[in-house]
Amino acid sequence: MTSISANLQAVRTRIAKAARAAGRAPEEVRLLAVSKSWPSSCVREAAACGQRAFGENYLQEGMEKIEELSDLDLEWHFIGPLQSNKTLDVAMNFAWAHGIDREKIATRLSNQRPAALPPLQVCIQVNVGGEESKSGVAPGEAQALARIVASLPRLKLRGLMTIPAQTENDSLAHRQFGELRELLLRLNQDGMELDTLSMGMSDDLEVAIAEGATLVRVGTAIFGERVKLKGAL
Ligand SMILES: *Cc1c(COP(=O)(O)O)cnc(C)c1O
Fold first, then answer.
1. For residue 205, what pLDDT is reported?
2. pTM above the 0.90 mark?
């Protein structure tokens, strides 16, 4: 067994255990394999183990992999920050975008989504930690943005995404993920039918699943530690 296949198996086991511990069915939690910084060969290896959904942060890198792996039936998620100069490529190449945090970006994505493709599946990114440096709307602004996004013809609003403030404090982590769950609940009480809570990564997926995550974004625990040096891969 290669390390990617062993790691994938271990992550699936962690997800199933966390789901059962929370009284949930393991199938309620999807695994998004975050392949940023890893070459196409690693994605191919994970795909051979049955992994279908992959997440990329960097547009150029992601598009190269999509091209190189076009023989496989994969589902590509853009999980990086979205600026105006990226929307066309995201609209043309990806199935999902998780980082919607303003109307202008959402409108551009909807206008640029090719008619031949299904609507772009999107999540609104919410800054639950309230950190200055993080992108995402403030929790109090999520509902207004959700109404706008839900009305755009070529987008399908699926739910909410967050990258909470990193913390060793377990109860704070629970509170941050719980805040996103409650926000989603309120939007659904308001008449929306959102099914996705995109939260939890390699280090905190158990807490996120306990708080209702339906999609966890996992990189390091599957592919290994990313090398930060530019050009090192
Ligand atoms: C890199 C990244 C992940 C994966 O993080 P790991 O700690 O490697 O699992 C998840 N979500 C986003 C938005 C990321 O940028």
1. 97
2. yes
What b/e string do you get for 161-197 counting C-beta neighbours within 10 Å, with b at 16 or more?
Answer: bbbbbeeeeeeebeebbbbbbebbeebeeeebebebb
- Count of helix runs (H) and strand runs (E) in the chain: 9, 8
Phi then psi for 87, rounded to 5 degrees? -65, -40
- What single-letter DSSP state applies at residue 126? B
For residue 225, the 8-state DSSP code is: P
Find the 115 Cα to ligand 1 centroid distance in Å. Answer: 30
SS3 154: coil
- For the CA of 218, the closest atom of ligand 1 is 9
Give the position of tokens 């200055």.
132
Q: Cα(56)–Cα(191) distance, rounded to whole angstroms?
A: 31
Ligand 1 atom at shortest distance from the alpha carbon of 161: 13
Name all residues whose Cβ lies below 6 A of ligand 1. Answer: 34, 36, 57, 79, 163, 201-203, 217-221
Domain boundaries, the chain: 3-223
Q: Whose CA is nearest to atom 12 of ligand 1?
A: 79
Q: Residue 1: its pLDDT value, please?
A: 62
Residue 36's contacts (CB-CB under 8 Å, 6 or more residues apart) are 55, 56, 57, 58, 61, 62, 80, 219, 226
Fold that domain 3-223 belongs to in CATH: TIM Barrel (3.20.20)
Q: What is the mean pLDDT of each run of 10 residues along the chain (233 residues)?
A: 91 98 98 97 98 97 98 98 97 98 98 98 92 84 97 98 90 95 97 97 97 98 81 45
